[in-house]
What does this fold into?
Amino acid sequence: MEQAIKQIADDFGQPVEELLSVVLDNMCQSQNVVGLDGLAACEELSIQGCGIASLDNFPNLQALRKLLLADNRIGGGLENLAKLTNLEELSIGGNKIASLDELKPLEGLKLTAVDLEGCPCADGSDTYRQALFAMFPTLIFLDGTDVDGNERLIDDDDDDDDDDFDDEDDDDEDDEDDDDQVAGLSAGIDDFGSDDDEDDDEDDDEDDDE
It folds into this structure.
């Protein structure tokens, strides 16, 4: 893992300790978590499909907000994640977690999204869902749906950004239209003034002829 992280840092031209997002999915195989200690600034970490079976050596990454550990061989040891006090999203689907009791050590975390889909404990029943939403009062999404069963729209934030961008474009276009209207009005006033000047000149010429 450490070598893969160094490669990512080189690719981004940043020191390992300044990386904000690290994706190691299927890049390495290790039963234990190793080589993550330097990710002091990392906010999003994905280690999916890497064969991890133990979380015993998981480092105290206080900046971490999103952790994806799906499709590994994790059967327990989630208490090692309880120190990640700023963690908001945890994906551990496709692992060997057989009981919801394994998540109890994480009750102190303010998790807003948890994904257990594909684990033996995740049967999708009302009892299962109620237990998880009760365990984590801050939980908004469980296995991709909210408490009412509505699917999570992953691109909501992106759509909002696009809407903001579109609004800015519309504002720019409106400003351009306003400028055109002002320019047209000014041109009309100038033309009107020119016509008046021409009429005055003609009147002066007639007076002179008289």
